[in-house]
Design goal:
By secondary structure, this protein is mainly α. It is built from 31 helices and 2 strands. It has a two-stranded antiparallel sheet.
Length: 539
Amino acid sequence: MMLRYRKTKNQESRRAHVLGIDGLLNSLANVTLEKGRGQNVIVPDWLSNALDGGKVEAMTHLAGLHLVAHRNIDRMKQAESLLREASEKGYAPAQEQLGIICLFGLGRNADPEAAESWLRLAADQGRGVAQSLLGMMLATGAGVERDLPQAMQLLALAEQQGDGFASKCLKNGKDLGMVPQFAAFSLGMLHVLGTVMSNCNDDDADAEFLHGITMLAEAGDADACFVLAMLKQQEGNGAEAQHWFLGAAAVGHELAVLIAGLLAFVDQGDIRDAYPVTDWLEVATQDGSAHAQALLGLMHTTGRGVDRDVSKGNRLLDLAAEAVDTSSALGEFVRTLEKRSYLEMLMHVLGKVIAAQMSSGSFAGSDGGFDAVEEATQLAKQGDHFAQVFVGLSLWAGQDVAEDKLGAIKWMQDAARQGHMEAQYFLGVCFDTGDGVERDRKEALGWFRLAAEQGHEDSQFALAHNSLLRDGTEKDQAEALHWLRMSAEQGNATSQFHLGLALLNDIDTDPEDGFSWLFKAAHSGSQNAKAFLDRTKRD
């Protein structure tokens, strides 16, 4: 009997459900047999005639028939031979599919160099899947020289064509500077699924598929552990999902290690006490993971999840600042001391969101991500002050949500009333400048004072500056010097500069004390201090 074929439709199966995997794997075999696998491929006359005429479309279609009818070595080789012939004639769909076979080693040994070559040819002709896969290879350095700028360009092109994997890579990874990590996760998952699916031959393919992944996971394959955890999560089996997530972390899966670290950071369940999470993070930091360095550094500086060790924490944060993508939110928060307080907010919200999603069974669902602002808003409504600040900042900047300054101030007020000093400082600036609210100097000073009393250096400088602007009484001068010194001792360069000038102008103070603070300010990066000291030398 002649086999008929039709275009692939979305199959309600485990394979198609994992993060929308059907899109990429359907590029490997773009026809589905109505009669299933295990039957001989009988080529219809019209297709045979097209093959005789050297039609590249016919070669690619027949390759698809071979791939679906029998997922075994012989059929894979026949498919590869057809795809190679079509590819060498410049047919982009065949180049794309041949690149996938070479990349994931389906029916053959993996060959990243050949994969890059074929995928690049297809990508240059506008094939979205090829652009996505090549972008992920370049982002991770998987068998090729790493080139993150080119990777981002290719992923953006693929996203414009509707490629789901590229979109998820960019959506989940861009703000956190984790595009390479999400790309590595995607490539690892595709490798596992492709390897297992290429050996599924019977009618109960889903059961065979799950068995194959379980076997790989039990053998210690980190990507298989992570994929199996997602499958268990989707089934609503939270205990098994957690087991395999932590199993992936134990064998060095970077994303799993970071998830375990975030859960320990927010004291989720028994993870912190029952598993050596900090040991996993230590190994990841030694392997150069900037995100592990940032998370473990924050844990040590705050004492959340580990014994507090501020010195070690700051060293790790400094290492992260040197390596992380400075255009990302994480890079913004770790590269300067004054913004590191926001890092705790970011990690806290991420940890809480992941914990909530894992509890509800929605983590790593078929959409492959989450709406951070929406999830944080739910936490904010429950009174979580870190989430309130996160939502407030997002609304203020219009980051992934429509700009709403009034809404932002409302959330900041909720957090500030709970004692969050960054929210208090934020409100102080708003009321001081009239940005988003009616200007109210008294209200601004009230918020600055609350934050300053908790040690917020910029708020301390704001109070000092306000005192200096007043009538210049001894009380004003004393208060200004008090807050300048408090802020300067925390390393605030602006406060160090103004404290140095104030002490130089105080006849009862040794000038050396003033110059000492000016030198500290210059060392901290104050251009005003450097200019003043240069003029002093010339004079």
